[in-house]
Structure of ABC-type branched-chain amino acid transport system, substrate-binding protein:
Amino acid sequence: MNKKKCAWVTVLWILLVLSGCAKKTISPDPSLPPAGGQAATVPGNNGPTAAGNAAEIPSVASLVQRGGQLAGVGNYRAALDLYGVALPRAVGNDKNVILDSMESVLLRCDVDLLRGIKTGTDSQIPPSFVLYALGYRYAARGEKEISRDLLQSYLRQYPHGRRVDDARQLLEIITVKKSEGIKIGCLLPLSGKYAVFGKRALKGVQVAMARLIPRYGDKVRLIIRDTASDRDIALQRMQELVDDRVMGIVGPMVTAQDVAGVAQSHGIPMIAMTQKDTVVQTGDYVFSNFITPAMQVEALVSHAMGYLGVTHFAVLHPRDKYGRKLTDFFCDKVMERGGQVRKVVAYDGKKTDFSKEIKRVAGFDDPGIQASLRRSGGVGGTRGAGGYIVNFEALFIPDAPSRLALILPQLIYNDVTGVVLLGTNIWHHPSLVQQAGPYVRNAVITEGYFAHSDRQGARQFKNAFAGMFETPPKFIEAIAHDTVSMLLETVMDPGVTSAAALRDALSGTRIFDGATGKTMFDREGELHKELFFLTVKNGAFVEITH
């Protein structure tokens, strides 16, 4: 059997075994000749498969799509095999798409796999791609001399290669000695529309530096730039940091999405401080450390079901973007964990009387629901003082204190009592206690930082902050402190000798324990954060500990 026939047997084996669909037939592609009409036995199939007959050759698009799926689960060798088969058949821009995909996968391969590709007979993968990827991966491993030789060889052999600029920059980065000082950038909106947040974040940065400078001295330098709350200025300041050869960047906040692409293209790890979860989709050099709506909803559901034993929920939400978004998150998470959302009711935020919506969400206006609950003995519900059985055990209300001050008293007035109230960090405001304190009963509230927590990291930060500033710290100050600390402590790790190594060190098993709790990024760069749970007792917010 010639090489082309063998290649297609391999491809069919990958597609059929890894996709788990051995009995599924694949549409024929007339642009590729059949494998000589010979029957080939495909591992994982029940019998012989004739190429172009029982299982026809897949299209270029399907090969590329399947290659992406394999790469996504770490099967890089199989992904490269599929790209290698698809490339000769591709035309026009499809070739560039496949080459981009090949290059992306190669940069994620380990050195042993790359060495095998380089010395093998895989003629479809450009040798320039493999050479640069080897230099890149050795730099990530901290083996600077080998990386330097490979990158210099790449520049000599491929002076017009796709990665010439990246190779030059990486060469400069890996020659930096930590004794000469590592430079870290920090982008904050210190002027303009969002200056109030930038200045608060700066205080957190200053507390972190006051703690870390005695430890590291002149081995590290923080370069702070003002984005002026403006996209164009943020891009200018970002370019200045690139020109300064910083190894990593903290921030920005409101302009994170605008500058993330610059950080990714230059291979500079950036930890933004934004709740926009789309920013991390820019690439593997872009991280974000912030509390997000999805994160809070997941924590609330986990606490309610795992700790409180709640299985039946309801949602009462404002008819606006925030309310709808969090309601969707909430319902998805409850169903993922096997719970039930009994009722979802929206209300007009401009109203002041919510009795109608409260009765609807509780099921009081449906005699059938009440009869069913009584027959079941109230299973999945909560009995109110007036004899009604509420149709759930916990109620999620994603709204601000100004409306909660109207809604919560009306819940009790309408006999919705004894249920757990679930809310996000926007509940954590003095006005909620001031205006609705007696009605905030059985509440569970998520928060990213709580100054009165007994956690060591939160307590130490609060004390350090009090020694420098008169006002008490809040979440913005705490998250800025933790983000700077996380990046600086990681960059000063002896094994971190390049920007690529810094990126790899940030994602994986490293857990940072700071003012905002335990924080880590997984292998895909997704943030995992330990949130605080609060409730209201005796007219004050207190931490729920368990």
Summary: Confidence is low (pLDDT under 50) at residues 1-54, 383-387.
